[in-house]
Design a protein that fits this description.
The chain is mostly helical and 103 residues long. It has helices at residues 17-31, 37-40, 45-55, 76-102.
Length: 103
């Protein structure tokens, strides 16, 4: 748990730890790794979903547009980290979808 102010829903109730972790990871991907909305235009929604499925331990259909490295499957901490990264990729897919719909 970080000392950051918890994210809250419209009703003022804090979001769960998982939702907050995903939001922080998506922010990190954008701010530190440079995976901005502009960068994300290089990929389609299915690219993000395929990478998220792979991180979550599944087998994406088709050939992935980019690869992701999974953590040690025997480590609970790293499994959580992979799920957080997968959630952030799903958020990127939603952002990509929304941006495309607005264009």
């Amino acid at each position: 748990m970080t000392n950051e102010t918890p994210l809250e829903g419209e009703d003022g109730a804090p979001y769960s730890e998982g939702v907050q972790a995903i939001a922080r990871e998506r922010g990190r991907q954008m701010a530190i790794l440079g995976y901005t909305y502009e960068h994300d235009q290089q990929h389609n929604v299915r690219d993000f979903i395929g990478a998220a499925v792979a991180l979550a331990g599944g087998k994406p259909s088709g050939t992935p547009a980019f690869t992701v490295k999974r953590s040690d499957p025997d480590s609970g901490y790293y499994q959580r980290a992979d799920l957080v990264r997968a959630g952030a990729l799903i958020a990127a897919a939603i952002d990509r979808f929304d941006n495309e719909a607005r264009a």
